[in-house]
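Quick question about two entries, pasted in order.
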Amino acid sequence: MAAARGARRLLSTSSLWLCCLLLLGRREPGAAAARSGSPPQSPGASIRTFTPFYFLVEPVDTLSVRGSSVILNCSAYSEPSPKIEWKKDGTFLNLVSDDRRQLLPDGSLFISNVVHSKHNKPDEGYYQCVATVESLGTIVSRTAKLTVAGLPRFASQPEPSSAYAGNNAVLNCEVNADLVSFVRWEQNRQPLLLDDRVIKLPSGTLVISNVTEGDEGLYRCVVESGGPPKYSDEAELKVLPDPEVTSNLMFLKQPSSLVRVIGQSAVLPCVASGLPTPTIRWMKNEEALDTESSERLVLLAGGSLDISDVTEDDAGTYFCIADNGNETIEAQAELTVQAQPEFLKQPANIYAHESMDIVFECEVTGKPTPTVKWVKNGDMVIPSDYFKTVKEHNLQVLGLVKSDEGFYQCIAENDVGNTQAGAQLIILEHDVAIPTLPPTSLTSATTDHLAPATTGPLPSAPRDVVASLVSTRFIKLTWRTPASDPHGDNLTYSVFYTKEGIARERVENTSHPGDMQVTIQNLMPATVYIFRVMAQNKHGSGESSAPLRVETQPEVQLPGPAPNIRAYASSPTSIIVTWETPLSGNGEIQNYKLYYMEKGTDKEQDVDVASHSYTINGLKKYTEYSFRVVAYNKHGPGVSTQDVAVRTLSDVPSAAPQNLSVEVRNSKSIVIHWQPPPLATQNGQITGYKIRYRKASRKSDVTETLVTGTQLSQLIEGLDRGTEYNFRVAALTVNGTGPATDWLSAETFESDLDETRVPEVPSSLHVRPLVTSIVVSWTPPENQNIVVRGYAIGYGIGSPHAQTIKVDYKQRYYTIENLDPSSHYVITLKAFNNVGEGIPLYESAVTRPHTDTSEVDLFVINAPYTPVPDPTPMMPPVGVQASILSHDTIRITWADNSLPKHQKITDSRYYTVRWKTNIPANTKYKNANATTLNYLVTGLKPNTLYEFSVMVTKGRRSSTWSMTAHGTTFELVPTSPPKDVTVVSKEGKPRTIIVNWQPPSEANGKITGYIIYYSTDVNAEIHDWVIEPVVGNRLTHQIQELTLDTPYYFKIQARNSKGMGPMSEAVQFRTPKADSSDKMPNDQASGSAGKGSRLPDLGSDYKPPMSGSNSPHGSPTSPLDSNMLLVIIVSVGVITIVVVVIIAVFCTRRTTSHQKKKRAACKSVNGSHKYKGNSKDVKPPDLWIHHERLELKPIDKSPDPNPIMTDTPIPRNSQDITPVDNSMDSSIHQRRNSYRGHESEDSMSTLAGRRGMRPKMMMPFDSQPPQQSVRNTPSTDTMPASSSQTCCTDHQDPEGATSSSYLASSQEEDSGQSLPTAHVRPSHPLKSFAVPAIPPPGPPTYDPALPSTPLLSQQALNHHIHAVKTASIGTLGRSRPPMPVVVPSAPEVQETTRMLEDSESSSEPDELTKEMAHLEGLMKDLNAITTA
């Protein structure tokens, strides 16, 4: 379905030209589009109302058979009645001359005698209903798929089988999926009647339960799909008598995973056989299913499960369990539930004025997540500078013109289906007020237009409009009040502006009445803009000022990145960084700035360096740091290098292990537990621990034990009975042993106690009631030979079972808190061990009233008296702090005001730390005890907020819980891959696919991007896969220019601030085929040669026209014999070689001064590094692109010119300052002071960023021809454009050659424009690349660009094809036709420069003489061929 949907082409030739006109700016604002031609409205005319125009019935997916008739229903409502047309696979149907397809009166499409064969399928495809009202506009329906059942083919046929009476039998019959509904069964060549005992599964399989003798016979399945019936082989079913012995239990039919849409039914087959006869039961996600009481869950014959009216809650894993009393077997299957696209918010009708900005809102839901596209008057909306997709699905239209009126439709589509919703846009005259309050779809920049006007004098034109500040990307305008209102306190102003040569205006309004200045931002460097200002008062808008023509400043020339940056650790606390002089210095390098940052932090530090190396001291031990270098010249900071990461050397740990505790097991063994040292003090990988212990009486006799790995406990055996021992632990790294803990004591038991039975009853229980608490004290059981692990205290009003508290075996006192005054409590005490709880001891007590302050002791009857100390509560700990150490560790510290000032613990008090997270809300607290003023909490979840509190206990006295402290653990790299990866073809573009996915379930932080890997070889090394980065949390991406009819494999990695997660499993997708008669718009030439025209596709799919067929230009070609064709081909090749050699001779004979002039001319043609990411003047990208230096980086949320195009990373630019916020300038200087050149491609992904590490791939890129206004510098080079381009590209000196590779990348900051694209035509299953084409000189202005198209199709038909540069020095100066370039490794930048230099000096006269002699030989061969 996905491949077929990708083959749809929704744009006809007429609709394509209409979309082109939308992008070309509409030079006649008053003219309406062809389908939306609303009559112009005169001033003062009544406000037009929105016209109801919608579909009453839309076509639905239909299954038909060959030779039958089909009706695709469609009906639309409008006044006047609309004209109904139909599209099939994106092309309008000509129903006038069609004798099988006709339009019914209500608009439905009737197809009689459906035609379908192996090689001719004219009726199968995707149909769309188009409704048009000439005076109103056009709307399109949802797309419906017509499927014609193919010829019957049996995937499996019934086989002879036998079954015991009373058991189950299964006969398989699998046919094409679209023919299952046409399958029936015969027994002994008579139709078989189905009932509750004999059923047919959805796959066509026959299941007979409780087999009887009457079921014996010959069975076959029949497929009747309109033609003659097709029969399967006959199979005999034998019924055997019950042997009265058991037989093995086995599955005859197991469930298989299913995908169903909400509302459909699902049958999970499950049939078992065996003696005794088995029973079937079902479980879902380990919960038993009740099929008897459920209305939707039905158990079919044999045990299959039928789920009707599937919902999202039905998704999950189902287990079929067969049990016959002797044995049990089970099988499982996954049920996936999908949902069709649905609108959460539909577009709303909008009134607006010209020059305003509007937004059509559209929110959709579905599973898989739907993709959204926009249609205006039936034609696809192509993203441009003025039509943008914002907030994933909303359509933003900037600078409205009259021709933007019409009907806009939001079309949502996923694998399950598609749906549409539309709205109407009406543009009113400026003197007609918008009738309602400003809707949410109007942007804040245009809401000042909405105030209703009253009658009165209008202001005159503002005076003295000047550009007081002109920068590369913003202009500040100021003016004086109009002569009609010298004070102007109540006037507001609107500034209208547009690029020179573009008819579509934008508007910017002043913020407050009386303001007489506006800053227009997001402009392009070296571009001419036209400004005019209008004043408004309460009566309306006044006169416009005279147009002001202003040109933005060009970008300055800044240094390129410093090559060969390296970093290596010289000690545990120092790292040495070295680098070389930038190849494109663009002037003398004044100094360097070295930036470094600890991994996992956001604080970057810098140091100024005058040389090419620097040693950074005072770093943390065994810690990873990243480094980058920025060179400075007189213009400022240049392009930053890529990050290099290195870790300082390891050292011995600088802190002891934490939370050391001991547990006496018996009379001869003690268990020691500990936690690792704090992460920041480990100083390397912990390789083990050293345990030292000694008898307390013999401190000089110390025994050592080594524990390797990450073990955090150790059992010490062979100790003496009743002896006190001291223990301490130290951590180990490869460098040695760190400091040890303090000595901790424990005493072994005198004798081994009995733990084969529960403890006896405690010998006494004493209670002392207070107002809201009861102090409980006790003595241990009299029999001391039974192990007591602790005590359980139960209490409650009238019953001791309401609450239970467990305390340590050493404890003898406990205070029960938070009780009610004047209440009767029953208290129980039980000792317990690992066997269980002992006999309880009961007591009751009545808490005191609020007014009672006396102290009365209650004693247990017949129990010895035990004095009770003062139960005054302790002060809770204060100053609780949570220090985050890692993704799973937080250190908790606190202070105890009941301790002396030095905070040293000298008594037996201990602290209890508790913690929890609020996600999910019902999470329980976890507790741990500590004997110091800090505790290391481990085993936490990454990127999770925890709360902590502490209490102190001393004897039987405890404090309340302290104030809580909060801490969020650090992020961790994702530990699971992205989910639900799907690949579909893009509608109308078979070479383009759309990849969709869901975020990983264990993101462990905010996802900052994804990387898509794809290859035609699933077994290839991962560094050989092609990479597409996706910035941000987007879940869909387009990849263009793939090879037709080729299997591709796709994997996805998620990334957060900590790095890359695991890759998803490979997903296979085969691109669709394209017949020679079914050319896509991308593969056809349109228009005349020149800008915007395209060459025919000469890729792997190109086939020369046959005799008698039409040529690509539409003229018939005459028959040619093979000899003449060979002569023509050889002649063209020789002439091309001669021209290129002459050009090479001419260029190499240039003097040094001429070379400098040509470099200046090239810079002029290229805009002197003034190209902008949204400009259509694109510089030639670097010949070699090192992909491992590209990365993903969070970016500003600027409006995206393309609904699916990846956002453009904001460059590190300190030159483009804005006057709004000076602090921004300092932050840019501190961190983002670098420039980047363009690295982009037509796959709508921007391969840019600073931190991503990618496999190295080397490719020349195509460049897009200029499509905007540029300033031309006069050049002394009189050569043709193609020659000058070749010279400038191939014969620059080292500085010129390298400087052209680094354009000032602040050109990328203009978020309001589209990105440059590099276009390639693949001839390899992945991609091939051609040489960048340098834009030829042209007139000062150009028309707005058409939608971006591959470069090979953009050249004029009579232009020379640019040569491909390879890494071979011998062929560097020669020209060749475009061909794939396969290079095992990319040369460094300085190596490329060296090759260019060598090529300049390699064309000596002798070599040229040899070349000419060689050409003369070729000409002689050619003459010999032609005369033969």
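Here is the second entry:
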Amino acid sequence: MRKVRRVRIRHDGKGSGSGWFLERVLVREEGQPESDNVEFPCLRWLDKDKDDGQLVRELLPSDSNATLKNFRYHISLKTGDVPGASTDSRVYIKLYGDKSDTIKQVLLVSDNNLKDYFERSRVDEFTLETLNIGTINRLVIGHDSTGMHASWFLGSVQIRVPRQGKRYTFPANRWLDKDQADGRLEVELYPSEVVDIQKLIHYEVEVWTGDVGGASTTARVFMQIYGEEGKTEVLFLSSRSKVFERASKDTFQTDTFTIYAIDLGPLTKIRIRHDNSGNRPGWFLDRIDITDMNNEITYYFPCQRWLAVEEDDGQLSRELLPVDESYVLPPSMEEGGGGGDNAPLDNLALEQKDKSTTFSVTIKTGDKKNAGTDANVFITLFGTQDDTGMTLLKSSKTNSDKFERDSIEIFTVETLDLGDLWKVRIGHDNTGKAPGWFVDWVEVDAPSLGKCMTFPCGRWLAKNEDDGTIVRDLFHAELQTRRYTPFVPYEITLYTSDVFAAGTDANIFIVIYGCDAVCTQQKYLCTNKREQKLFFERKSASRFIMELEDVGEIIEKIRIGHDNTGMNPGWHCSHVDIRRLLPDKDGTETLTFPCDRWLATSEDDKKTIRELVPYDIFTEKYMRDGSLRQVYKEVEEPLDIVLYSVQIFTGNVPGAGTDAKVYITIYGDLGDTGERYLGKSENRTNKFERGKADTFIIEAADLGVIYKIKLRHDSTKWCADWYVEKVEIWNDTNEDEFLFLCGRWLSLKKEDGRLERLFYEKEYTGDRSSNCSSPADFWEITLSSKMADIDIATVTGPMADYVQEGPVIPYYVSVTTGKHRDAATDSRAYVILIGQEDERSNRIWLDYPRGKKGFSCGSVEEFYVAGLDVGIIKKIELGHDGASPESCWLVEELCLAVPTQGTKYILRCNCWLAKDRGDGVTSRVFDLLDAMVVNIGVKVLYEMTVWTGDVVGGGTDSSIFMTLYGINGSTEEVQLDKKKARFEREQNDTFIMEILDIAPFTKMRIRIDGLGSRPEWFLERILLKNMNTGDLTMFYYGDWLSQRKGKKTLVCEMCAVIDGEEMMEWTSYTVSVKTSDVLGAGTDANVFIIIFGENGDSGTLALKQSANWNKFERNSTDTFNFSDMLSLGHLCKLRVWHDNKGIFPGWHLSHVDVKDNSRDETFRFQCDCWLSKSEGDRQTVRDFACANNEIHDELEETTYEIVIETGNRGETRENVWLILEGRKNRSKEFLVENSSRQRAFRKGTTDTFEFDSVYLGDIASLCVGHLAREDRFIPKRELVWHVKTITITEMEYGNVYFFNCDSLIPLKRKRKYFKVFEVTKTTESFASKVQSLVPVKYEVIVTTGYEPGAGTDANVFVTIFGSSGDTGKRELKQKTRNLFERGGTDRFFLETLELGELRKVRLEHDGSGYCSGWLVDKVEVTNTSTGVATIFTCGRWLDKKRGDGLTWRDLFPSV
């Protein structure tokens, strides 16, 4: 035979133990030495029930590639469909090719694993592995005619040869039977058809199961191979042998992969998974080796992770990357020295984590009946590059009983090269008792990409619900996508010391700090109890790969600790290594943090938290030439480990001490301590007792300058309430001391009910935005002056979602949701404002504070936001981010208020924003031409800074109210929002206020209500800064607002100080009150007055202390003195009222004299009427004009001074004409003739003219025209005239009207071309105000709505505001009438002084009565002297339980 090239070996498969595992065959010629042996390796089973079931093997010498040389022939035998066609005989086949032929091979084991072979009308598959015989030209097939039914009707034979890329078809359609046809048992067949099929590549897959407890699996394993040229289908790794056993290697040879290219090319990754079936499905996969048999290249895919529900991260699927063989096969293995060291492979974990993407998949099951499912749920993530394949969701991080009604499940899915995620497919297998499932949404968070995407569903996955589909494709809602700074991988290795009981069962956490106090979240390292027991054993290294926030290039410190749980929680840590990739990912750096300390409550200093600083850095970097550069260096100037002495003073007030567990967090400019439990006091056994100080030692890395602390307690034990007086922190190293003045309760029952508080260092003047908790807080910061100099691109954290380019102004948005049963939505709403020339704001989200979400049926939600100033708003877009059917929203009304423009738009929408309602859109653009426009008064933005004094108890919980007075009027009383942490001791608080344009200011009144647990306040001073002009106004006080301390008053007035000059003088007033000489004229009620003058009003003055013991008796005069008041100037009006208390409250007042003592001038206010609910017109509030002021007859003619400012964009030599439009009359044309002698309207100049006219009343608008003088050539530069401002002064009374034009007036030859400007601002003189103060009766008609329950039983009050003042709060009441019933109209008369143009009505009720809720349709107010009626529409509820929950409304007349 010469040299033996091939050995064929087989057996007949008979006998009970016929299976045979053949290792190798040695062949040598007889008589030759053993050294001439030729080895033919096999290492395969010859067994029907194992491996591939073959009983014959063809072996090649060990020096040749058997797999490469052997071809596989896949034989399909079809038995005919005739009676008796099947056979029990042994069938054999022999193939003949142009190169060689095979042996006569008995077909014993079918590939499709059928029990009975060669049955009627069935196809049996067999595989024949042998040498390459070339192109098949014929075959011989037959049987041995044994068995019960020997006859066989053969239909056809088909042979596939993937290596050749050919398929041969051999038709037969004949009997092979002694007794039928020609009686032959064997037939020779020739191919009738040879078809080219895709030529496939032969791969060998070796699966290595790890050598750990429970590593083997009983589940079905599937694999998919990816190469640069394509990918295989999902392959089931099947074998008749028992595979995937612990510490075993399983080999699968297959060449049946269906791919889209002839060759996959170099392999890039594989995906391996199992179906979690069997009684022990958990599997620890060590690695997979795949050999490309054509190119003889082996790829190594290390895993070393669990594919198990109860282990690791719970994933049943892994994607693996190939690595160099040096990582898998270290030199010791190649030299036969055993397993070697795993260190090279360990070093790859960080790099592989960086190349992979870990998705956190959150699934929300709906809150519907039977919404949960018992079926097996799977998911597939689709990216632009690839998909994850079907991934079973078995291991939820939140619930053991998954997918129950209204539950949220979180799963981990890890993948490679997915590209941009765009679709999610979710479904189930419809198994279990209740397989139907309602899915609300799926959220996919990828920390390494910094993106969290939401895929709305809102549909059933059930055969008997919806459309019967149990698999759905979901697409992400772009508006719900949340972006943040991408996370980076860290390799964290913790070394447990070699000391007795050093190991721990507790859960270890870590926090990593970079520069400037940037840090990661606190992250627990173990994901389950099993890992806690497995890791952190004595003298061990526990390695974790975590994705955490990027803290920058330098790691300053880390904090490690544990939760002190488990049987043996104490832990002795030797050191910690943190390895991470260099910024260019061309190497790694490892920082070592030495510890060598206990973290135990029974050892060392009994602390379970340690802060560690790095000692050295080991850098490995790949150079351009491919070499690896290794650098070791010590850390320069690491942070010092410092001992901080924290002394906490508990207040000396009743119940101040606490037995609860107290925690503190200390913040410095270099970082924070994390939350530390204050367990052991250094000076006291019983901690936190009333009036005592406790000292605690906290060890931490140097915090730098400490500026903030956070204190909290857990409210456990019987006496949990705690009053903290102050905290002192002492740095034992450099002896720096930091003082925190607290003076607050941490209690659920006292003050604002908070158990956690932030306190700032006494001298700290920096940013306090960490107090911000609501969107309104962040919007306010965007409006503040400190944002002006900040580069928006550098803003990080929560503020990044609020800042925007361009000038920003505040807006108030109110949305009313319809009452339809499906009107509500839990989606997030937004608005986009569109101004002139299509200028658009950013998308402004309407977010709630404190996590509230959605819009309920019939609700009215109001939002304070800020956005780009787009000028005059033309359109508004309203939308939401909901994309599922469940997120439909019916919007009834949309209101937008623009304070800086003094305009409010009210849109009646009544439209659906929903995918499956209306026109199917979730956003809609509304044209404000369709809106009702309301004038709410132009506001100016001011930055207000309030200083609270540095005195004990200086902070307050009371409500604070402010009223401002200026040259041009006054504001209403407004409340200053405390925002949790404002108005505390020695603190300056800055916030934005919207104030009417009344500057320059003259005085400010501050009032507190004296309620709350801290009813007193020490006010130091207040500063107002105009955000537009930068003008500053200071108000000084420096005293208590308290009923017990200082001036013993809750109200103070402060004079405005501008440029060091006080704007008002101080004086004192003497008030003399004469009660009439009428029967029953005296009163027992408490009387109050407000004095009005040219400098504002006095505020409420209580007439308490008179020389008469019994005040306000018939025909008596009572005198009251009010000292230290700001002068009101000439007085014009007096408001008098009483509280109707006492036995005889009715009062007939004769007159009141008010003497200004500094001016020695007395002002009389004549009354001569009742203030009584049972006499006269039953009013208890009266306004009286000053009798000293002479009321003139209405003017007929007057003179107007006109001042015209020409801008820089165009002057004129031509004529200009004006017409003034007043409330009473319209002027004739006023022509300003330009001449060469008296030149007017030059660039940048101001021209003044006087114009005699009939009296026009209040001027409302102005017509301006630009008229050519004569038919002459006009230079192009004079074709337009730039008029900047026009100021008109009525000379008799001194009223001034401002017109801010800033417009180009084109030159025309006819008068029909002109521009109209409305008055921008009006300044009414005191003389004019006096003229309007005449008694007037106003008719008030209130219409109640028609809805069920619209009427009210409560007491109703109204306040009417006009240009000349207001009525004060008046009760609307009539004897013997049931007022404010559903659909009713109620009429009232109020007597007061002339209010001028009506601007607002405030309607309110006190919530009393059985049915207090009230739906107001409208209010109509008529001046009976002029007959002018003003309608104030409402259409809103005044009800604590409906709409926005308010029991008051400010109503404005529509424009």
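Reply: The two ends are 114 Å apart (CA to CA). The first strand starts at residue 7 and ends at 10. Hope that helps.
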